[in-house]
Design brief:
single chain; mainly alpha; globular
Amino acid sequence: MIRIIRRPPYPDELRHEVVWPCVLFSGAAFSWAWFRLGWSLPECLFMKWAGLPCLGCGGTRSARCLVALDPVQGFLYHPGFTVVAFGLSLWTLYSAYVWISRDPLRLRLAMDEGGRSLFRRALLAALVAHWAWQVFYLV
């Protein structure tokens, strides 16, 4: 069983409400600088050798579409990147709420062994479906 619970943070627990917004903002700043400087991306070795897109192919085009406020086209280029970007954005809004309200309770996932197994299978199925979409859409 997978549940979302509210609980106080453990003493030495990673402060997710600080880490993930920093990841989002630093990634966005790095991407913005990369795009502004006009740097080119390295060639995809998987595409070169196998002739098929890798799991990351289309991520840059998706990021450019998201920056241009075209999330539908961004999703078509790279569904995984778009979903992760929106998830991090929602987590950043939640983190801002936690900082402003000084709420002592935090949202966390609680999983038993069956939930972990289900989570792993769902993640694997999502990766396979994502790659199938990449092969269909980008080739």
